[in-house]
Amino acid sequence: MSQVKAETPDQTEFQQSLYECDYYSWALVNAAAIRERRLKDVDLDNLAAEIEDLGKSQESALESHLKVLLLHLLKLQYQPRRSTRSWQLTVKEQRLALRKVLRRNPGLRGEARLREILNDAYQEARLAAARETRLKEERFPPDCPWTFQQVEDDKFFPR
Length: 159
Known about the structure:
Elements (H helix, E strand, L loop, with lengths): L8 H13 L1 H13 L8 H35 L6 H20 L6 H23 L14 H5 L7
Helix pairs in contact: 1-2, 3-4, 3-5
């Protein structure tokens, strides 16, 4: 196993400057250093932050799909006579998309984390539903009325 030597102050300053001023070049320089196993030249602190951000972006994608899905479930429940084929297809589309995110990122399937993501998405969906339906925000439950399993289930449509 190769040892990683500490970066020199000049390397650290160069990497930080590159990271802040030219992200594209920073990414290429660090990718090349990793491929060539020159770990002493890798900007480890910023690389670690970027890797964490990649994980967060997958979580954000899941939350975004849930928000759109929950919005349409709320519209279907609170304005069933205005229901359109488009609303129902959006529900199906968002279910497919969220399952795809979860299939590619099974670590997001933790029950407590899913519940938190669902609740965060619901709060935004609730506001969007109030805006789109022109119903008062208070008409919608303050907390998500459905479980993640219900929301994900292709057969579930609120009535």
